[in-house]
């Protein structure tokens, strides 16, 4: 078996920043267990598998494909950065002739649109509802200790817990915060929470670029201690910060060691456009 495989860094224009995803192009049906084995071998937060939906499709001319995402541990229902990486491979490496691609996924149809300054993902927008602190207090305290918390929300659609840190903190505090992910699996065993979002209100631009909000994202329940830049987390963050700031257009930065920028526009149809760049850093052939 020989599979074309690529690694692209998403939500950045520079190699070795943003969030790396492996992308496999499947000419033929792949044995089910091999998806997970390949993802484990790649050992990135996500490996994406693009498949043809019809026998006569091809990666250069067709505009609609199947798409699945796997962490080293399990399949996930939505991954923004690996969708962006997949579109980047098709647009920029395979030279797909279409300006918009449609991916059929576990989260419905997702579209990726090519623009001069990046790729725009059309993603679902998920509301986050007020969460009683006492129900998740142990989880939060385990993760961030005595760090002051301003708001706690929960997204039942994505099983993500959004924790807004106090406005008294700044970006450098969030970047340097040590988060204990190892013990979260022992504290949260109900299956209710599958991802932890820490977020902070942005600061006006001075010496640095202005961002509306900052975040970090942790998903040890999927085998990913910290994810560098997370499109799926921003389907929740976009909803929350649009409501908090009274804005439909937002500029966000995820404060991991690699870092990544996202340009966000909430749409009138209840979905969200999230735009980012991508840098292709590796291409090769997987042999098994």
From TrEMBL:
Keyword Protein transport included in the entry's annotation: no
Keyword field: Isomerase
Transmembrane domains' residue ranges: none
Pfam families the record matches: PhzC-PhzF
One GO cellular component, as annotated: cytoplasm
Keyword Isomerase: yes
GO MF terms, alphabetically ordered: isomerase activity
Top-level division of the source organism's lineage: Eukaryota
Catalytic residues (positions): 46
Family: Belongs to the PhzF family.
Name of the protein this chain belongs to: Phenazine biosynthesis-like domain-containing protein
Species name: Bos mutus
Source lineage: Eukaryota, Metazoa, Chordata, Craniata, Vertebrata
């Amino acid at each position: 078996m020989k599979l074309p495989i690529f690694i692209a860094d998403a939500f950045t224009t520079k190699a070795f920043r943003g969030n790396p995803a492996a992308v496999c192009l499947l000419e033929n049906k792949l044995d089910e267990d091999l998806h997970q084995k390949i993802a484990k071998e790649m050992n990135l937060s996500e490996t994406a598998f693009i498949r043809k939906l019809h026998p006569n499709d091809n990666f250069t001319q067709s505009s609609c494909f199947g798409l699945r995402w796997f962490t080293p541990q399990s399949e996930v229902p939505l991954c923004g950065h690996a969708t962006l990486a997949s579109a980047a491979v098709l647009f920029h490496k395979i030279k797909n002739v279409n300006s918009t691609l449609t991916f059929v996924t576990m989260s419905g149809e997702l579209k990726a649109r090519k623009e001069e300054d990046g790729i725009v993902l059309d993603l679902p927008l998920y509301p986050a509802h007020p969460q009683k602190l006492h129900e998740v207090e142990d989880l939060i305290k385990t993760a961030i200790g005595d760090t002051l918390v301003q708001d706690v929300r929960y997204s039942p659609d994505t099983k993500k817990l959004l924790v807004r840190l106090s406005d008294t903190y700044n970006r450098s505090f969030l970047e340097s915060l040590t988060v204990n992910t190892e013990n979260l699996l022992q504290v949260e065993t109900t299956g209710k929470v599958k991802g932890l979002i820490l977020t902070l209100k942005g600061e006006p631009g001075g010496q640095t670029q202005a961002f509306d909000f900052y975040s970090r994202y942790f998903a040890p329940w999927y085998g990913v201690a910290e994810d560098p830049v997370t499109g799926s987390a921003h389907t929740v963050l976009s909803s929350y910060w649009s409501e908090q700031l009274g804005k439909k257009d937002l500029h966000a930065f995820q404060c991991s060691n690699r870092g990544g920028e996202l340009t966000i526009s909430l749409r009138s149809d209840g979905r969200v456009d999230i735009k980012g760049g991508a840098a292709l850093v590796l291409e090769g052939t997987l042999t098994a």
